Predict the structure.
Amino acid sequence: MEKGLKVVAVRHPMPYGDLNAQKVQRFATVEDLHKHKCTIEEMEEYEPHVVRGDVIYAGVDYEAILREAEKDSAGCDVILWDGGNNDFPFYKPDLMIGVADPLRPGAEVSYYPGEVVARMSDVIVINKIDSASLDDINTVRDNLAKINPGAIIIDGASPLSVDKPELIRGKRVLVVEDGPTLTHGEMKIGAGTVAALKFGAAELIDPRPYTVGKLSETFRIYPNIGTLLPAMGYGDEQVSDLEKTIENTPCDAVVIGTPIDLARVIKINKPTVKVGYDLQEIGTPNLTQVLDEFVKKHNLVK
């Protein structure tokens, strides 16, 4: 997208607690996450954007949120709705970009509201093609062609970044992943697990014998989570239980695959490895071309 455009992002809400107090929320700094008493799940949605310097709006009153976003500081050229959790937009977009996951082939035609997004989108990124099988990628591609033949399809990989790979190789590690992805999101692994296997961990430690309180309850509700620890944090008690579970688990290092700096939220008494990932577009068309066309169409070029 053209440089010099001011973009304000609106995130799909995940409020817990006093909804009246969460009518309109504005996040511009990490301190704002504490100000609004965010859960770990909310932090996972907002923090990656805030640390890049983006301004994020969220809350429960989307008319009020939109009006605040429109007049933010010096005004903005583009309002970006970032749905998260496969949610379709609460505003009618001028350009809608969706993401399809070939590690969950078939979800694009069977999972609500993911199928709604797939049918509505002008552009769909088929992500993770570096870690999915060719058969599953082709299943997703064929399904998208059937339900939304007019959509522009962009292929993308998700290359991993690992800050301390030497703490993984040959070591016994506990993998902590994004909580909702592994519970009601029904994924079996996340970026942390992929990194642990790629960089040669000797063993992935099963946290289930060492869980306490709310974390033990999470594994009872979602028995198929597997050999990893979901970063659940809906309230102080669950955050405390997460900290105690990590402390209880015997391992050489903790591999953190959550989108946030988990060590900022809880005390971790073991060496930690931070795993991230980015979008690497493969071939053309790509998002730069799509967004450049969008900017020209709406006369946003400075």
About this structure: The mean pLDDT is 88. The radius of gyration is 20 Å. Residues 134-147 form the longest helix (14 residues). Residues 7-158+280-297 form a domain with the Rossmann fold fold (CATH 3.40.50).
